[in-house]
């Protein structure tokens, strides 16, 4: 399991075409990619399971805890991105609620776009 940041502080200011915003790059793929939004309410959980393909969880709102194979939980919050390799066991849970996008694809390399802040076994 790896934790990345996609918050505003790790983005790049864009001014081209008279624009004024910050872009935090996340991922680029050429193969089929599935993107979904997960809404975990208070005490919600995405149960302990194996990733079918590499998976990137982007926490948009709220906070919670994630773990990998060893079930050692790490706190995550808005702006954190969690990456699990194919076949890696993992779980996500929250006490207060959490909204996250999930990106699943055979071809995910988040290290090309976001700074790594934590690696967990």
UniProtKB/TrEMBL annotation:
SUPFAM superfamilies: RmlC-like cupins
InterPro entries: RmlC-like_jellyroll (IPR014710), RmlC_Cupin_sf (IPR011051)
Name the UniProt record assigns to this protein: Cupin
């Amino acid at each position: 399991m790896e934790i990345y940041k996609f918050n505003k502080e790790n983005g790049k200011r864009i001014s081209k075409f008279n624009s004024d915003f910050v872009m935090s790059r996340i991922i680029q793929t050429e193969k089929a990619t599935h993107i979904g939004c997960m809404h975990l309410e208070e005490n919600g959980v995405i149960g302990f399971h194996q990733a079918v393909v590499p998976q990137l969880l982007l926490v948009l709102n709220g906070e919670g805890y994630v773990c990998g194979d060893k079930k050692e939980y790490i706190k995550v919050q808005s702006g954190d991105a969690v990456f699990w390799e194919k076949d890696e066991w993992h779980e996500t849970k929250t006490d207060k609620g959490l909204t996250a996008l999930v990106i699943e694809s055979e071809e995910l390399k988040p290290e090309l776009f976001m700074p790594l802040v934590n690696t967990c076994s």
